[in-house]
Amino acid sequence: MTIFTFLSRSLLLAVFPLLIIASGCRSPRSGQELKSFRFVDLHMGSLFRIVLYAPNEATANRAAEAAFQRVKELDDRLTDYDPRSELRQLSQQPAGQPVKISRDLFEVLEHSQRLARQTDGAFDVTLGPLIQLWRQSRKSGKLPTTADIQKARQSTGFAKLQLNASRQTATLAVPNMQLDVGGIAKGYAADQALLVLRRLGIRQAMVAASGDIALGDPPPGKKGWTIAIESLDTEAAGATETVSLHNAGISTSGDTEQYVEIDGRRYSHIVDPATGLGLTDRIGVTVIAPTATGSDSLATAVSVLGSRRGPAYVASQPHVASRIVYLTPTGPQRILSPRSPHPVQAGQQH
Ligand code: ADP
Ligand code: MG
Predict the structure, then answer these.
(1) Burial level of 316, CB count in 10 A (0-12/13-18/19+)?
(2) CA-to-CA distance for 80 and 338, rounded, in angstroms?
(3) Which helix (H) or strand (E) holds 194?
(4) Residues 256, 235: contact at Cβ < 8 Å?
(5) pLDDT tens, 101-127?
(6) How far is the CA of 59 from the centre of ligand 1 (A)?
(7) Strand pairing of 33-43 and 169-172?
(8) How far away, in angstroms, is 181 Cα from ligand 2 center?
């Protein structure tokens, strides 16, 4: 059984060797003996893990290398940490000027803008200036001033980013805008890595970009990939809940890892456009969607929408399921969406 745990990134780094060869299975289609192979690599500041089934080690190595290469290419394009990245270069262009961008960046921005419109800006890739303020707070231990937030706000808002699909251009309407695709890039990279594997004939595979996972066909002889969900409630109870899935994306966003504590309040790295600050609600969101691009961005969006508006939004989406956990003074409360990710089993990990 293959079980992957979200959020325990640093631990996993220590325990996962680069390549593990597991037991063999016969492919139902070709009758060929397939073995499972696992690979780990660091990209986008996160641990990327690939599990795939292939007839031999050489095929598996080649495929994983190509998939990681694709992730690296996307990292180089989409990172906001490197001034040479395509994303940063775009932010440096003069306001009001259409800029031709790559297909990857266009797809990521197009998906983001659709979600921004649907969620009234809860998900918003133009929040860069406010995200920068959050990063400064993490270093200084101080909240930004109201004036800082007001100034940053003048260069944020998804309506200030305009896309033209036929020309494949992006236009930033006002000066000092900064795009940040940290809430969607890992999911997109996981999807793209899975696509590379599929093009190389490997369909029984999964790519996990820490908490953002893209799943292909199920492992041989299995109905799905067994994915462990770790969130605020399971952590408190010391239990693990799992779901079985294939050909889908699943993501968990939460406040358990990245936050800054100031004057006894926790501000998560997910920025609430309403306040301009990190979210202070203690909320953990797991989303299942047709792709990891979808699940990654939705998990961030639903975290911002919160325990009241989040479930209503998910219910309006035909192919999305969510599991939302929020902390109340009396303990964790859980809200499962109508198409809830049904737990297949609870208990020990294997
Ligand atoms: P993780 O999976 O690492 O917990 P998320 O997918 O939740 O991360 O995305 C968090 C990142 O998204 C932040 O570090 C920031 O780059 C970006 N971000 C923060 N707030 C928002 C928001 N409201 N909309 C879109 N992106 C955001
Ligand atoms: Mg996300």
Answers:
(1) exposed
(2) 36
(3) helix 185-199
(4) yes
(5) 999 999 999 999 999 999 999 999 999
(6) 35
(7) unpaired
(8) 9
